[in-house]
Design a protein that fits this description.
alpha/beta; TIM Barrel; 8-stranded parallel β-barrel; 11 helices; FAD-linked_oxidoreductase-like; methylenetetrahydrofolate reductase (NADH) activity; flavoprotein; Methylenetetrahydrofolate reductase
């Protein structure tokens, strides 16, 4: 079953990890992921750096997740530093490895490293993938708009083009303000963009890490969240617990309001994912029962 079909039957729960630098660290990650098999995530996505330097590591980790854990994997593919020939070769490798799910991204430009130029926008990469195999393609979206977009209208039009070219579902950038997501959903409805949207949630357990990520992405933080960071920045344990509690609170609100799915940015910390799932799994189960047996 393609992932796009899974959204028709349940509220999706998925995870994201990144390929470690060494084989030893990769095996350690796989061992730790074994502990989350009880969660039974609908898929695990594997990131790829903007400059395509670790593409084989992404493929290898995706393959291991599918073969060793029996969990569907989604490989990230970024376009800025990818030629059409490289893209075709990578798609062949993914097909041979039976990795059918791809998150197609434009990717961030690396300083002092000019892009290849074959894929200026993610929509072009989506179209290329669509024409080169029977892949299930997801696209990224930005509820508070892409930092390079001039306004919400332009951002929504770019997103619509991505969907028109073949993206069957969307995953949002991490958000910390649920209201921003619901406003985003209203814009999608007005633009007649009718595909499932998973909300990206990242438990803030490291103050410096979250500062770096939000500075790069331009995400606006709600006061409730900035209060947590200010209060617990110097207390590692309290920051972890407060961050996990905040993520749980977001998920409760989103699932209760009928969100299509939750995509958890784990930062390679399966233990945090386990804690969040233990606190929220009954919500997913109740929602899925309702979807299976509507009144």
């Amino acid at each position: 079953m393609n992932l796009k079909d899974v959204f028709q039957t349940k509220t999706v729960f998925s995870l994201e990890v990144f390929p470690p630098k060494s084989e030893l660290a990769t095996q350690k990650l796989l061992n730790s992921l074994t502990g989350i098999q009880s969660i039974k995530p609908d898929f695990i996505s594997i990131t790829l750096g903007a400059a395509q330097m670790d593409i084989q590591k992404t493929v290898n980790l995706a393959t291991a997740i599918q073969e060793q854990l029996s969990i569907p994997a989604m490989a990230h593919l970024t376009g800025l530093y990818l030629s059409k020939q490289q893209a075709a070769d990578t798609l062949s490798i993914l097909k041979e490895s039976q990795i059918n799910n791809i998150l197609a991204l434009r990717g961030d430009q690396v300083s002092n490293c000019p892009p290849v130029g074959d894929f200026k926008y993610a929509a072009e990469l989506v179209n290329f993938i669509k024409c080169h195999g029977d892949f299930d393609i997801a696209g990224a979206c930005y509820p508070q708009k892409h930092p390079e977009s001039s306004d919400f209208v332009a951002d929504t039009l770019h997103l619509k083009e991505k969907v028109n070219q073949g993206a069957s579902h969307l995953i949002t950038q991490m958000i910390f303000d649920n209201e921003a997501f619901w406003q985003f959903k209203e814009r999608l409805q007005l633009a007649n963009i009718n595909v499932p949207v998973e909300v990206g949630i990242m438990p803030c357990t490291n103050h410096q890490q979250i500062q770096r990520i939000t500075a790069l992405s331009g995400i606006q933080m709600p006061k409730k969240f900035t209060n947590i960071m200010a209060r617990y920045a110097d207390n590692k344990e309290a920051m972890r617990d407060a961050g996990i509690a905040y993520a749980i609170d977001q998920i409760v609100d989103l699932v209760a309001s009928g969100v299509d799915g939750i995509h958890l940015y784990t930062m390679n910390n399966p233990e945090n994912a386990q804690r969040i799932w233990e606190a929220t799994h009954t919500l997913f189960e109740a929602q899925n029962k309702q979807l299976a047996y509507p009144l």
